[in-house]
């Protein structure tokens, strides 16, 4: 789970991170009010769960109230498209108004979970501000890496070593240790998966300050971090995935036109592959999991069909805990309740499969039964253009 920049800064500030003074605004008037409180110039920043805002016009230095108001008006309620979003972008509902910082140098500092060493890894570079992925590719030597031993924690000599490698001197060495300790403690104590300060800035007076902050958290640990869970902003997430999650379903949106209702992630992958092999493209897949009731199957149909690109639905169930007859009843119920007219291909296997097939075949509805996964995928691809035409 991601959180907003202003939330990450609040979290980090509480444990010692130096950040610019600032306030949050949901409307242009509020943005002007916050700017007046801080004094000009200010920096106005769109709060979305994506980086690359600077290059996309989501960050602006404003010298007057009129500038703040005009910029706020142009951003709020719109979607911001950056290099890190899809073509639709992310909606801007809040702005961070901050005192402007005098930048002498921009440093990159990131903490990530390194799966290879099974440890928290610090990645840092003197070439901050720019895209770290590009830097890692073009100048891998410009990146400094260091792993933290979980039994020892972050040790003072590590902070100093890294500070020297980044070229810090004098008071900056101590300031960097404070910055790094805040990042590490936030990461460890809040079950984060990523903490990123880009840029960490050296100001005109030679002091360090975090100009940007991003944090991601382990969703599986949210149950024990209510204070983190409270920072969730559903407005930044795919509404379809959200709606599916409410029914205990996992939804993944894709670009094609074949809607897929499947049980189990492995079977979903195999089905995606089969569809592609047959020359088609999945529009999405929805994992109904084990023990799907007819009601859940109906909810699954509703979610899959909320994508207007779907021209055929493929139901592929290998029932172990599930029961084919229940799934079949759900398909019939969905077809009637939702007044469907598009083709639905159903492949059932496993528990109560004969009963399930009988329900499908005797429903009197234009449901297409398939014996195997290969046949189901090929059929879905074949019946689709006939409908589209
Ligand atoms: P991102 O593009 O989404 O990562 O957003 P950032 O918060 O990193 O801002 C992008 C860029 O805006 C930074 O790299 C800075 O160069 C610039 N910027 C942000 N705040 C200030 C500021 O207070 N003063 C100045 N001069 N530039 C700033
Ligand atoms: Mn940034």
UniProtKB/TrEMBL annotation:
Organism: Roseinatronobacter bogoriensis subsp. barguzinensis
Gene: sucC
Annotated binding of ATP, by residue: 45, 52-54, 98, 101, 106
Gene3D superfamilies: ATP-grasp fold, A domain, ATP-grasp fold, B domain, Succinyl-CoA synthetase domains
Binding site for Mg(2+): 198, 212
Taxonomy, superkingdom: Bacteria
EC number: 6.2.1.5
Biological processes annotated in GO: succinyl-CoA metabolic process; tricarboxylic acid cycle
Keyword list, A-Z: ATP-binding, Ligase, Magnesium, Metal-binding, Nucleotide-binding, Tricarboxylic acid cycle
Protein name per Swiss-Prot or TrEMBL: Succinate--CoA ligase [ADP-forming] subunit beta
């Amino acid at each position: 789970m991601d959180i907003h920049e202003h939330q990450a800064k609040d979290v980090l500030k509480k444990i010692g991170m130096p950040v610019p003074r600032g306030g949050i605004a949901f409307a242009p008037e509020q943005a002007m009010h916050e700017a007046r409180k801080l004094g000009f110039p200010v920096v106005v920043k769109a709060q979305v769960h994506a980086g690359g805002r600077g290059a996309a016009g989501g960050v602006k230095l404003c010298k007057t109230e009129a500038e703040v108001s005009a910029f706020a008006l142009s951003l709020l309620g719109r979607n911001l498209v950056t290099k890190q979003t899809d073509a639709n972008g992310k909606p801007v509902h809040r702005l961070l108004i901050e005192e402007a910082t005098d930048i002498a140098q921009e440093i990159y500092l990131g903490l990530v979970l390194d799966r290879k060493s099974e440890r928290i890894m610090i990645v840092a570079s003197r070439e901050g501000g720019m895209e770290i992925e590009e830097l890692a590719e073009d100048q891998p030597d410009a990146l400094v890496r260091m792993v933290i031993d979980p039994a020892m924690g972050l040790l003072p000599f590590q902070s100093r070593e890294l500070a020297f490698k980044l070229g810090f001197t004098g008071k900056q060495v101590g300031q960097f240790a404070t910055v790094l300790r805040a990042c590490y403690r936030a990461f460890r104590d809040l079950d984060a998966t990523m903490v990123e300060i880009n840029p960490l800035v050296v100001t005109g007076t030679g002091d360090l300050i975090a100009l940007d902050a991003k944090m991601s958290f382990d969703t599986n640990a949210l149950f024990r971090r209510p204070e983190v869970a409270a920072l969730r902003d559903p407005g930044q997430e795919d509404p379809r995935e959200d709606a599916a999650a409410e029914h205990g379903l996992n939804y993944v949106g894709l670009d094609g036109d074949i809607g897929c209702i499947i049980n189990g992630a492995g079977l979903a992958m195999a089905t995606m592959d089969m569809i592609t092999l047959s020359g088609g493209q999945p529009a999405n897949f929805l994992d109904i999991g084990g023990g799907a009731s007819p009601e859940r199957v109906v909810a699954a149909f509703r979610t899959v069909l909320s994508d207007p690109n779907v021209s055929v639905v493929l139901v592929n169930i290998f029932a172990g805990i599930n029961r084919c007859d229940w799934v079949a009843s759900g398909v019939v119920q969905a077809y009637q309740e939702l007044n469907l007219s598009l083709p639905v291909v159903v492949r059932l296997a496993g528990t109560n499969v004969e009963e399930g097939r009988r329900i499908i075949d005797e429903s009197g509805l234009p449901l297409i039964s398939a014996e195997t996964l290969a046949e189901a995928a090929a059929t879905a691809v074949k019946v689709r253009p006939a409908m589209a035409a």
